[in-house]
Amino acid sequence: MSLLVVGSVAFDSVKTPFGEAEEILGGSATYFSTAASYFTEVNLVAVVGEDFPSQHVNFLKSRGINTDGLEKQDGKTFRWKGEYGYQLNEAQTLETHLNVFESFKPLLPQSYRDSEGVFLANINPELQTDVLNQVTSPKIIACDTMNFWISGKRDALLKTLEHVDILIINDGEARQLAMEANLVKAARIIRSYGPKHLIIKRGEYGALMFNSQSIFAAPAYPLENVFDPTGAGDSFAGGFMGYLLNTRNFSESNMRQAVIFGSVMASFVVEDFSLNRIKTLDYNEIHNRYREFKQLTHFEESAEIFRQ
Amino acid sequence: MSLLVVGSVAFDSVKTPFGEAEEILGGSATYFSTAASYFTEVNLVAVVGEDFPSQHVNFLKSRGINTDGLEKQDGKTFRWKGEYGYQLNEAQTLETHLNVFESFKPLLPQSYRDSEGVFLANINPELQTDVLNQVTSPKIIACDTMNFWISGKRDALLKTLEHVDILIINDGEARQLAMEANLVKAARIIRSYGPKHLIIKRGEYGALMFNSQSIFAAPAYPLENVFDPTGAGDSFAGGFMGYLLNTRNFSESNMRQAVIFGSVMASFVVEDFSLNRIKTLDYNEIHNRYREFKQLTHFEESAEIFRQ
Description:
The structure is a homodimer of 308-residue chains.
Chain A lengths: L1 E5 L3 E7 L2 E8 L1 H9 L4 E8 L5 H9 L2 E8 L5 E6 L8 E6 L19 E4 L4 H9 L6 E4 L3 H6 L1 H8 L4 E5 H8 L4 H9 L5 E5 L5 E4 L4 E4 L13 H16 L4 H18 L13 H15 L11
Parallel strand pairs in A: 1-4, 1-8, 2-6, 4-5, 8-9, 9-10, 10-11
Antiparallel strand pairs in A: 2-3, 6-7, 11-12, 12-13
Helix pairs in contact in A: 1-8, 3-5, 6-7, 8-9, 9-10
């Protein structure tokens, strides 16, 4: 099953306590498609400038990602510059230059319109709806957003959410969107906006998935060397959606496994700058880390204990 | 198996966004013993003032807690006053009056000296060692501490830790004690000080247990109504140690179950002020919540997935 993603392809300049790198390949759609490419066909929709080198396009193609929807426009590619402190939980954005991304109007190639899965990365919710309108009969739609759209384009965002099956956001965004501090209550409010499933990303603390039947809590993998957290959330979404499309099974139990595959991909991406760590993963590494998540969380059913 | 705890018995005045209460029963040893009392015999060591009402002593006795080691001294009982914001993660301490606790020199009743489990709640590490020296042949020793002792009595604390099997602290304390920001590295450093097992409490994010064989990640129970987080950490420790003493099994697998029973007790205590919620739990509630933790974290082993 093919998986469409619309989002950013960018050059990032990143500083962490462990090193810095200039103008490295980044962007939500880049991280998402690379992570998803281990599981399914990906149709990438994004825009870059004339300065975007063919080596990056070739890399995406080498991962079997369809780049027919990667528009090249006059101007420069989106650039982001950020810095992380020792806590590594949230980047301080130093510069954002939207460049060609500013006037981006995603137009889907004909061959993308029958995509069965859709991931709307964090872009203007009006564009998210535009993209959805161009997909003929998607089987599953997931979406991300951020504080900027929640406060600035709330109505457009709520309109998008009516058509979304799975919303994947962080805890601060969930509280802001629901206007409720308690996450259990916030989840109920957000699910009333449309998404049957809500996944709340909590960085080093893992993820929570809420649906009508249950709550699922997944930890993050306790890494000894977190090098650069950039792209963790989009790689999570890529592993999650990639696995769902691979298995064509949207049951609650399979969605839990998808959350773990998402967590696996996120745990790899933060081990190095840019996509370096997930450029050339082999399936043994992916499956082994999945098993490590199982080990990390497993405990036995309990016999009923009474005071002796 | 009997479980000795030394710590504070106090009057707390607490303000949360949901209400406030004055001079309610609190203290680390109170929360610990009440939680543990569902699982095993508890020998309580603490000090109170003349103002401590017999109704509170009677409550502890009603839970089958041995209060022979609860000294009554001239003076007033330890008092703490704190306030929580909407995040409910950390209290702002407004007032601390040590009162009779200031000159506390724990002397164990003869009948306590053969206790098989020991929990040294957060007190001066010199007193922790004094207490350990009075126990004949403990089978398992756990301990808590705080930033005040880590910075102010580091050498005494390291001396205590040489004799401790399980250290139970929060993430900030672990980073401070190890002088290392990364928790995986911090755990290795702390375990080199003596404790074979390190449990890091992360409040609403659950707990991590590190030992030589593995890391175990347990979530917190996602509660819709967290009323007052006071005592959550000590109730966690009480459920954890109580279960271990009940089962007399210190295997890694059983310690994972103990972490879940600790999390169960902590999830109850925060639902109301003081010990109100855990005063009269029944075993069905405890076992049901354990099962809910299993549901919350369960996912299937994965078939090996490749791109199709």
